[in-house]
Hints:
Blueprint: H1 3-19, E1 35-37, E2 43-45, E3 57-63, H2 74-86, E4 91-96, H3 107-113, E5 118-121, H4 145-154, H5 157-165, E6 170-177, E7 184-186, E8 200-202, H6 205-213, E9 217-219, H7 226-232, E10 237-238, H8 243-249, E11 257-260, E12 269-275, H9 276-280, H10 284-318, E13 323-326, H11 329-349, H12 351-383
Parallel strand pairs: 3-4, 3-5, 8-9, 8-10, 11-13
Antiparallel strand pairs: 1-2, 5-12, 6-12, 7-11
GO molecular function: metal ion binding
Pfam family, one: DctP
Binding site for substrate: 181, 202, 239, 265
Amino acid sequence: MTTRVLMTSLLVGSLSLGLAGCSGGADNGETTGSNQSSEDGTTSTEMASGDSGEKTYEWKLVTTWPKNFPGLGTAPERLADNLREMTDGQIDITVYGAGDLVPALEVFSAVSQGTAEMGHGAGYYWKGKVPAAQFFSTVPFGLTAQEYNGWMFYGGGLELYREAYEPFGVIPWPGGNTGVQMGGWFNKEINSVEDLKGLKMRIPGIGGDVLEKAGGTPVNLPGGEIFTALQTGTIDATEWVGPYNDLSFGLHQIAEYYYYPGWHEPGTALELIVNEEAYNSLPDHLQKTVDIAVREMNADMLAEYTARNNEALKELVDEKGVKLRRFPDDALKRLRNMSEEAVKALAEKDDMAAKAYESYKSFRDKVVPYTEISEQTYIEARSAE
């Protein structure tokens, strides 16, 4: 058992002792066997059980990522392993990659309808159902990963997140963060916003709305379809995540220029969603265990990407010959202005999006001044010659 899981298990164990009385008696939707009568006429219940002999909950977790894809795909697998270990097998989760049980972009619907109890993806993939979800995934020129976590857990963001998903019977958690992403892969240089005109680019969420304002055509594709789409000319350019995942997909084989910064996704939050009825079927101590495990998942992913992106970028540039380019300042300024327009337009179309926007903007206005005199100034000082 890892130190991380051991510490969490000890905490959950203490919670379990205090809450054990909540787990017995009622039919909470757990996996059970058939009722059988003994020879003396009394009735006993055979139920599936974990290592502890307690009731078990056999859940399905569907994802928008290829099975075991580095980072994005392995995080749900680790969550399932951790929950199995932390609960002595009471929560037993089977993870399905994109397309294994449901299509990649149908994860939200699958969890809402109860086809699966859990899902892992990104909120902007289901913006058609929940426009406000885009504020809970990423906003162009918006919050960084650390700022986002501040908003979620200490700035009222999580409450709004759950309010937005409640009509669909879905409970969301921040389920990992990739940090600042890269700007994308292109087969021509981008020297101005005009170079984006007529460009068909895979770019989801509000970033896609901004590309449209710049004269391009946004295309929403799941990760597993990107390589073929770019290779065959279905799209002209793409963004995906960052060096760690982009190298895994081999995007350097079919695109010449790799641009930064990822203005459109400055701190991309993934989400772990749970069917509300399934979650409510859990006794209190197991609900708490899920919460703790997902919190760990959220923190661990950012740490992994911080480490892996550095290694992958070096390989892409030094060994694969990728041409690394920075978007021009003038282009970034214009894209920032377009982003502000796109965000306001989204807020005007949907009441829940408007509430999320006001909260997001208020927190951003408060946190940016300190970020500028702390992390930003420190990084500038560290780089000074």
